[in-house]
Amino acid sequence: MARKAKAPIESPFKLKAWRQERGLTLDQVGEALGMTGQNYGKIERGGVELRETYLEPLADLYGIPKSALMQIPGHGIADTTETVPVVGYVSAGAELALYDQGQGPFDYVSPPRDSKPSTVAASVKGVSLGPLLDEALIFYDDVRSPVTADLHGKMCVVGLEDGRVVVKQLMPGDSGRFHLLSNSSEPPLLNETVAWAAKVTDIRPR
């Protein structure tokens, strides 16, 4: 008796197959969408919904119709104003520990006013950002861009050359470097090489 051919399985992980077929890494796809590879990995696994804003650029990148993305089981289109993922926490030294791929987000919170599809949150543990901000939430847009003049003097999420991510007030230093000032009694970081920075758009005490 002839064996019956197995019907193709409509998998929620089709996003991963499409990416691997094209030889792309999570970081490459994340960069094309203006997010980290870690965050795109969460979308790929179905832990975070695929927002409508990302449909067109992702379809263009993979060379598939936009409608194909909308039909993936388990990948609904998230309302960009409904919730924001908590992607990490700020601890001693105002250092932001981002959840590793596969760990988070552990929570979703209501978004700040004027949030974007790239808006994310981080929780503050302790007094690293000042005693009044213990247990607060900070919000920023997870778009890793070089420092621009409008960020000078602002509290920012800052990616350093050595891979650390800190939350500090960013001030121009010497020779294209930056001074990073703290809201607490911690000493400033002087003349640091900054890879990227994103302005803290909102702070919400808990």
Automatic annotation (TrEMBL):
Domain of life: Bacteria
InterPro entries to which the protein is assigned, alphabetical: Cro/C1-type_HTH, Lambda_DNA-bd_dom_sf, LexA/Signal_pep-like_sf
SMART domains: HTH_XRE
One Pfam family hit: HTH_31
Signal peptide span: none
Domain HTH cro/C1-type: start-end pairs: 15-69
A GO molecular-function annotation: DNA binding
PROSITE patterns according to UniProt: HTH_CROC1
Descriptive protein name: Transcriptional regulator with XRE-family HTH domain
Organism lineage string: Bacteria, Pseudomonadati, Pseudomonadota, Alphaproteobacteria, Caulobacterales
